[in-house]
Design goal:
Blueprint (H helix, E strand, L loop, with lengths): L1 E6 L20 E4 L5 H11 L3 E3 L17 E2 L4 E4 L2 E6 L2 E2 L7 E2 L1 H10 L1 H7 L4 E4 L20 H8 L3 E4 L14 E4 L2 E5 L2 E6 L1
Parallel strand pairs: 1-2, 2-3, 3-4, 6-9, 7-8, 9-10, 10-12
Antiparallel strand pairs: 1-13, 5-6, 11-12
């Protein structure tokens, strides 16, 4: 299955300069947050494939104007073509804005998913906005990752954790598209990328 992952920056290649066929062969689109709802609606329309999303810390507009034709998977496990995907959006609390959580709040969100994870037999992809602490994050409080993700990865060993939040154009942050955490590839979806599963 070919999966398009997007986050944080609308791709001019897929939107401003879109040409028919550019989304051919894509089976699923995953948004890791902080994208305009109209952009996600455009992608799901042009690809004619499912688009699953979680919230980034700048997605307050989704309350009044959610992306049409797309499915929010916050705190859910969704199975697409046999691939189990868990959604855990948001960033660390740094200014009290929407979709910001303390470390303890994120731990509680994960704990509430215990039975869903058990019934699903685990998970193949964890879709988040923030990265795990120490794996693709940054030192400043706004871009520091969640430690709460690490026990989740230890227990279920998903193939991927897909996140956004740390942009390529942030000169103060070092950008890594992929880092490895044990058996899980931690993939930064900022902009766009494609994975095969």
């Amino acid at each position: 299955m070919k999966i398009l992952t997007v986050a944080d920056e609308e791709s001019a290649y897929l939107w401003d300069h879109y040409r028919p066929g550019r989304l051919a062969g894509i089976d699923l689109i995953l948004s890791a947050g902080d994208l305009k709802p109209d952009y996600l609606s455009f992608l799901v329309t042009m690809a004619n494939r499912p688009l699953l999303y979680i919230h980034g810390n700048h997605d307050g507009i989704y309350e009044k104007h959610p992306p049409e034709g797309c499915e929010c998977i916050e705190d859910k496990i969704v199975t697409v073509n046999g691939i189990r995907i868990l959604g855990l959006g948001g960033a660390r609390r740094y200014n009290g804005g929407p979709y910001q959580y303390s470390e303890r709040q994120m731990e509680r969100r994960i704990l509430k998913l215990k039975w869903k994870l058990y019934r699903a037999g685990g998970v193949d992809i964890v879709l988040t906005h923030s990265p795990p602490a120490g794996y693709g994050d940054a030192e400043d409080i706004a871009h520091k990752g969640f430690e709460a993700f690490l026990p989740l990865l230890d227990k279920y060993q998903p193939k991927y954790l897909i996140h956004g939040h740390v942009h390529k154009n942030y000169s103060v942050h070092s950008f890594s598209r992929e880092v490895q955490y044990k058996n899980t590839t931690v993939l930064n979806a900022a902009g766009r990328t494609i994975i095969d599963m």
